[in-house]
Amino acid sequence: MTGTEAPVLDRLLDRSIVGGYTNIGYALRRGHWPADPAEGALAGRRALVTGAGSGLGEATALGLARLGATVHLLGRDPDRVRPAMARITDRLRQEGREAVLHAEGCDVADLAQVHRFATAFAARLAENGDALDVVVHNAGVLPSTRTTSPDGHELSLATHVLGPVLMTDLLAPALRRSATGARVILVSSGGMYTQPLPLADPEYRQGSYRGAVAYARSKRVQVEIVPHLAHHLEAENVSVHVMHPGWADTPGVAASLPAFRLLTRPFLRTSAQGADTIVWLAAAQPPPPGGLLWHDRRPRPFSYTTATTATEADRDEIWSWVRAAVAGTPAA
Ligand SMILES: NC(=O)c1ccc[n+]([C@@H]2O[C@H](COP(=O)([O-])OP(=O)(O)OC[C@H]3O[C@@H](n4cnc5c(N)ncnc54)[C@H](OP(=O)(O)O)[C@@H]3O)[C@@H](O)[C@H]2O)c1
Questions:
Q1: Which pTM was predicted?
Q2: Which residue, judged by its Cα, is nearest atom 7 of ligand 1?
Q3: What's 39's domain CATH number?
C-alpha cells in the first residue's frame, strides 16, 4: 500500500474509460486528489522535457517553469521549440514570473543522436557543476504506416522506449548529482490497456501494421519496463514514474486522430489538464513512490484483464530485449 490509492468513485471512472479519461474525470477527481505542489517547489531545480514544442510537452514545460524550474525544452531541433518558449515566457510574464528556458535539439528516435545529445548535455551540466533533477520523456508519435528509425527500429518503439531508455542511461551522471533525488517520468497512454506486451514481435514485423496498435504496444512496453528502470536507478537516488494523461486536445491528436477528435472534442482535456500529473509527479512532496503507473495523481493498475497482464518473467524478457537493443549504440 502506498497511501495514495484512488477512492472507489475514482476507480470506477477509470473502468468507464470515457468518464475517467475526459475532462469529466479531471473535473470529478481534482477536488479529491493529493495537494498541488507548493509555490516555488522547483526553485533551483533543472528539468528536461522532450517533445516540448507543442501539446502536453509545452504544457509540462510551462507547469515546471511556473514552479521555479529551469527548463530545457527538447525538440527534433532547437528551432522546433522556440515558439513554445516564447509562449511560455509571455504567459509567465503576465503572471509576474520569470522563466529560465533553454532550447535543445535531438531526434529521440535516432539512437546515435540521443547518444550525442545526452553525452554533450551531461558534460555541459557537469562543467557548470549543475545537476538534472527532472526528465520528462514526453515525445510521441503515432505512425500511420510502418516506419523505421535510422537504426531500423519500428518508429513508435524507438520514440517511446529505446530513445528514452538510452537517454536516461546517459543522463544518469547528471541525475545522480540532484541534491533532492531526481525524478524520471515517462508519458504513456491509456491506449496501452488494449495491448499485451509484444514479446514475440516487439518490432511489429508480423501481421498487417496498424499504427494505433503499434503505438499502444510501445506504450505497454513503456509501462512494463518501469519497475526494472526504477530498480536500475534506485542506487543513484533517481525515481522513475510512468503516467497516462487521459485524452487531451493537442496538435498530435488533431493530426493523428482527426475522427476521434471530432467525436470527442467537447470532452477532451486541455493540454494543461493532460500534463497535470506529469508536473505533480515532478514536484510533489513527499516524493511519490517510484516504479508505478499514475493517472490523475493516483497509482493505477498496469492491466485490467488477464489477457494483457505481464508476468515477472515477461517483464524480465522485454527489459533484456530493450537493453540489448540500445546496447552499443554508436555516438556517430
Ligand atoms: N494528447 C493525448 O490525448 C494523449 C493521450 C495519451 C498519450 N499521449 C502522449 O503524450 C505525449 C505528448 O503527446 P501530445 O498529444 O502532446 O502530441 P504532440 O502535440 O504531437 O506532441 C508530441 C511532441 O513530440 C515531438 N516529437 C515526436 N517525435 C519526436 C522525436 N523523434 N524527437 C523529438 N521530438 C519528437 C513532436 O515534435 P514534432 O512536431 O517535431 O513532431 C511534438 O512536439 C506523447 O507521448 C503521446 O503519446 C497523449
A1: 0.97
A2: 189
A3: 3.40.50.720
